[in-house]
Design brief:
elongated; 3 helices
């Protein structure tokens, strides 16, 4: 069982007088685990798309629209 599955099993549902689910209650730990899972899926999608672009550009990073690190690293370090 994955960590996410274990996390989801800890979810508590709030119900109204008729027994209809009206809200979800999570611990902070569970909430953070879900956010991390979502962020990891987003990162995987970004990497997958970037690698497809690189492959379509014949493995030429500049042709794929990638920037040369040496050309932009000074801007990155400003913050």
């Amino acid at each position: 069982m994955s960590n996410l599955e274990e996390t989801l099993k800890s979810v508590r549902f709030l119900v109204d007088a008729k027994g209809n689910k009206t809200a979800v209650q999570l611990s902070i730990t569970a909430w953070e685990a879900i956010l991390n899972w979502i962020e990891n899926r987003e990162d995987e999608t970004i990497v997958s798309e970037a690698m497809k672009e690189l492959k379509n550009a014949g493995s030429n990073p500049q042709k794929a629209g990638w920037l040369d690190w040496d050309a932009v690293k000074d801007e990155w370090d400003k913050d």
